[in-house]
Amino acid sequence: MISNNGIYYELYGTGKPIVFIHGMDLDCRSMRAVYEPLPELVNYRRIYIDLPGMGKSKVSSEIKSDEILNSISTFIAEITDSQPIVLVGHSYGGYLAAGLAHQLGSQITSLFLTCPVIEADRRNRTVEQHQTYGDKQISVATNQYTWFDDYYETNVKISDDTWNLYKKAIIPGLLSGSRFFKETLATGENYPFSFDDELKASYHPMNAEILLGEYDNIVGYKDQQKLFSRMFDANIEVIAESGHNLPIDQRHVVRERLINFLRTKDGEQSE
Fold it and tell me: Staple 94 to which of 89, 98, 240, 241, CB 3.0 to 4.6 Å?
């Protein structure tokens, strides 16, 4: 479905809304492939979105994170009618989720973030050395070698299972949306929020679960440990044998942590 402001979204279930926000260059399939189906989420209305310029969503009029944030905020107002919501974000989607928490305040009851960006400028990030574990003898079709190189450079657990999940979750998004839009958004002054310093210096009284990759060579984990610990009431965990594609490297762990978080911390915040 397409919202009034051009955001493509998919709905599953009924109940309290959870909005899933994917990473840069991808689409909602990267989140849906990880979290659907989960019987434990039966009482939640799961909303998977394509960010502007990505997947099936329309391109925003201005290619900046501020504009992306405003588009999502408008979408949330339209689709949730000011109901309390949970945000689940990965990478750039985690950065946007933190921005939404800052912007929307108490409407966001809790955050569940995997490998979130917090330093928008790549030059300021403390990243980790990539490492791999597992079976390196994976059967790869000739037309998939380009994608396999990306998989091998970001995933830590190398196996048929994680490669198949990568093909399902990541490749479709890379092939969709506006290449010009995505490349322009990811570079220069377009990426950081205009209120970036204010965001990192502010405290937001909501529960957050932050899962980080031990060998994340894209955003690392040390910056998040330092900054998110004072921005939110956050439980921060570095997950072993995982990298920036943590939800693929350790899908069962991520799903288990989300279920437990919603059962405990989100219920606690909603009382």
Answer: 89
